[in-house]
Design a protein that fits this description.
110 residues; mainly alpha; 3 helices
Length: 110
């Protein structure tokens, strides 16, 4: 299996996630606003669920945004790990090249 990822993939993904956090909060608020005409038309458990959702909308939005922030933190950590690994691989390659005896590998007819 080959895993090939560009050096900017995770940082680009992180930028997208930051925007998604803002979008998600706005979408929850739009959902509440869109449901306003339905207020008073529910009875029983439906009314209780609707009222609870509306009452806890800010909390729900905050928890969703917190979850997205955790995802963003994970993406940032992975980005750092990949960049560090890439740099270490380059450093190791340069170290091996500098200590290699290329003269011994020549196949001349002498």
């Amino acid at each position: 299996m080959k895993f090939d990822m560009g050096s900017e993939t995770l940082s680009s993904l992180g930028k997208s996630t930051v925007g998604s956090s803002d979008d998600l909060g706005a979408l929850v608020r739009l959902l509440i606003a869109a449901a306003e005409p339905l207020e008073g038309k529910f009875n029983g458990r439906g009314k209780a669920a609707f009222d609870s959702f509306k009452l806890h909308a800010d909390e729900i939005t905050s928890e969703l945004n917190g979850s997205l922030q955790s995802i963003l933190g994970g993406q940032s950590g992975m980005d750092t790990a990949f960049a560090t690994g890439d740099q270490e691989q380059e450093d190791n390659a340069h170290q091996q090249i500098s200590s290699a005896n290329f003269e011994a590998a020549r196949f001349s007819g002498r």
